[in-house]
Model the fold of this input.
Amino acid sequence: MSATADKTLAVALVGAVLQRNDRHVLDHVDLSIGRGEIVTVIGPNGAGKSTLIRAVLGLERLDAGEVRRAPGLTVAYLPQRYQLDPALPLSVRRVLTLTHTAPEARLKAALDELGVGQLLDVSALRLSGGELQRVMLARALLREPDLLVLDEPTQNVDAAGALEIYQIIARQRARTGCAVLLVSHDLNVVMAATDRVYCLNGHICCSGKPADVGRERAFVDLFGAAAAKTLAPYTHHHDHVHGPDGAPHPHHHH
Amino acid sequence: MIRAILAGLGIAMVAGPLGCFVVWRRMAYFGDTLSHAGLMGIALGLVTGIDPIVGVIITCIVIGGLLFALQFQRRVPTDTLLGVLSHSALAVGLIVVSTMQNVRLDLTAYLFGDILAITDVDLAWIYGGGFAVLGALAFLWNRLIALTVSEDISRAEGFASTGVRLGFTVLVAIAVAIAMKIVGILLVTALLIIPPAAARRMAHGPEAMCLATIAVGATATIAGISASFTWDVPSGAAIVAAAAAIFALSIAAGTILRIRT
Done:
């Protein structure tokens, strides 16, 4: 990981390559997140979305390329999967203050914002999936990071709850000016709150503003016309199509 | 007997919090490997003429560092590797010790612990080493808890690094080395694992669980040492059996309370 001199940049991947079992999980991925920008990574299952954000966080070793990060950048991370081990007794309060401390009132306020204010002194091992998800999100927000990295923040949460969570993320950005890197499946909900989208399938298929990406041929190939319509009213042709192996091939116009 | 109980209480105090982390981080096999390697440390002490406890501490730290490095390899599953190393270390240790015919060595005392063999030097090691280990553990405490709850979050947020894990490995190695004399090579892991398992149902937070673990360990130690003196049974075995009895009671009590409520 190297520091960057670009003051507008929070973090970037440059030519990131990551191989596993001779397969390219990340294939020359370039991605950048500006300070205060909300960036969403979308893509089919197995596209390498979680691996990509783990690479951004320095949790995966790259085979080539590099991570550039603004010096002194504070990070908060909500992983896609975490399991609390019943062998370790832990209160919600303890989960919230895992990597940083905050005054009592702020702990309570953070939980209240996510609608789980009554859980502060409950054992974290007794929470439902949705409750734990909200507590973990509250923990990440409490850290007031420069870069908030959320891997599917609305899993285990219903549609109304998902909308609310994206509004909370947008408020956090407006209030603290943090950059946000999201992985999400909720195309229609997330796009409203996203500045830029990267569409990933091993490599970056397309990227840009949500409405522009919806018109890309590569996006339609991956997600289907219905998904594209939620982003943009019409579609246009792109310069490559995906073969059966997911690799891009030049697209021939007929 | 006073000296034996002092030694046992010192060890219970150190083994309690470390044992909790061994349980939380699922490192039972790791503890086994370290303690089995301890026999080689005793041989090292006998060959070089240094105090066996120093030989064991050095060996445990070296093996601990080696195991730490090996967990980054992907060729052999970690638990398989530990299983292989644990028992080969014991085998090699037994062979080395048995070839040293010029030294008279009470192998049973090393394998199962010998409370009567506790010297003032051992006591100094237990309390000196013990307080150093507990101090270092207190220093690393919050980062170790975070690392245990989520390694990914701790690393991503720059809160705990590989260095913290290596530090913890060294602490376990030292604790195993100083506990070995009293409970024996084959039973050290039991002293790390059983008290936290018994204390789990008594506590709602990590710190409370550690205190409960120390209480369980101290009770088992006093009961075991008394039994050892009274009936002339191996001290380590008696302590572990007492801890196991407390564990069984805590499970039974927990089950009864759950049925009632």
Q: What stands out?
A: The mean pLDDT of chain B is 87.
